[in-house]
Amino acid sequence: MNLQKIVIDTNIVISAMLSNRGAAFKLISLIRNQKFKYVLSVPLVLEYEDVLKRKDSKITLSQEAINNILDRLCYHAELRDIFYLWRPFLNDPKDDLVLELAVESNCNSIVTYNLKDFENIDKFGLKAVTPKTFLQQIGVI
Q1: Residue 34 contacts by C-beta under 8 Å, 6 or more apart in sequence?
Q2: 80: helix, strand or coil
Q3: Which of 12, 34, 97, 99 is deepest in the core (most CB within 10 A)?
Q4: Does the pLDDT at position 72 exceed 70?
Q5: pLDDT above 70 (res 1)
Q6: Structural domain total, the chain
Q7: Strand (E) positions, 1-141?
Q8: 122/141 Cα distance (integer angstroms)
Q9: Sign of CA dihedral 118, 82, 4, 135
Q10: Is the peptide bond before 88 cis (omega within 30 degrees of 0)?
């Protein structure tokens, strides 16, 4: 079976930490079940950590719980090193680091709620999809 390979944008991780009812939470919950391949880089996990641990965050989890979640995300991910940069390609440099990882790892999709931030990534053979769309594509919902 050829599993789809994805990069998960930071806004999906945040959404999953804010509510256990949506598609983002379901997606994050399925990482360990090997329904798809999930890739991660050091810059992206540091971005996750920075956003999740901000003082003004609405996330009510403890620092220890956040660390445990980040550890689990790293454990189940295909970890990749990024050796090249195409910046700037997108408007936000933090979105560029997601794009670079997706291209380097030969991903099928970037899963994000900010579809407009990833316009024109089809040039790299990629598409941006919401968690719900991705879960539908893999037959989970």
Answers
A1: 3
A2: strand
A3: 12
A4: yes
A5: no
A6: 1
A7: 5-8, 37-41, 78-80, 109-111, 127-129
A8: 25
A9: negative
A10: yes
| CA–CA distance, 134 with 61 (Å, rounded to integer) | 26
Q: Which domain holds residue 126?
A: 5-137
Mean pLDDT for 8-35 is: 95
> What type of residue is 129?
V
Alpha-carbon distance of 36 to 5, in angstroms, equals 6
From residue 101, give the alpha-carbon distance in Å to each of 10, 20, 61, 78, 81.
Answer: 13, 27, 28, 11, 8
pLDDT in tens, 91-139: 787 899 999 999 999 999 999 999 999 998 999 999 999 999 999 999 9
| Domain harbouring 122, CATH code | 3.40.50.1010
pTM of the model: 0.94
Do the Cβ atoms of 113 and 98 come closer than 8 Å?
A: no
